[in-house]
Design brief:
This protein is mainly alpha-helical. The chain is built from 5 helices and 2 strands. The protein has a two-stranded antiparallel ribbon with strand order 1-2.
């Protein structure tokens, strides 16, 4: 109710057609274009939107195919990046597990809630090669 999602949508240029908005976004005191902001930021939705039948690794491969420039990244680069992310975010033990759906007994419960959150984050950083420490919490509070 305090407008956190609206603020994030505005800052990252998402869903702006629903809002009247004015102003500029500055990064390091420089005016930033929406394309620049999108290229250096990630956005993890509050609710996870996964394909429950895919494994963790299959989902990241799918996201990389959709989001990574195929002219800039080879299959080898993409697969190496996915393997790095799986290791960094401690998803190795579930990388071959179906994501599942905790609300569907037919598909199965799949990976844990914590693994789902890390997978959401992984899908965002698959195109931005950030160096992260999975033991440190990365939290933004608005």
């Amino acid at each position: 109710g305090s407008g956190k999602t609206t603020l994030l949508n505005t800052l990252t240029g998402r869903n702006l057609s629903h809002y009247n908005h004015e102003g500029v976004v500055l990064i390091n005191r420089q005016r930033a274009q929406i394309d620049t902001i999108k290229s250096i930021s990630g956005y993890v939705q509050q609710g996870d939107l996964f394909v429950p039948m895919l494994t963790v690794k299959e989902y990241l491969i799918f996201m990389s195919l959709v989001r990574m420039d195929r002219k800039k990244f080879t299959d080898h680069d993409r697969n190496r990046r996915i393997d790095e992310i799986i290791t960094e975010l401690e998803l190795t033990n579930c990388s071959d597990s179906r994501i599942g759906n905790r609300y569907d007994d037919i598909i199965g419960t799949g990976i844990s809630t914590g693994e789902c959150r890390r997978l959401s984050f992984a899908a965002e950083i698959v195109i931005n090669p950030l160096k992260i420490d999975a033991h440190q919490s990365i939290i933004v509070i608005l």
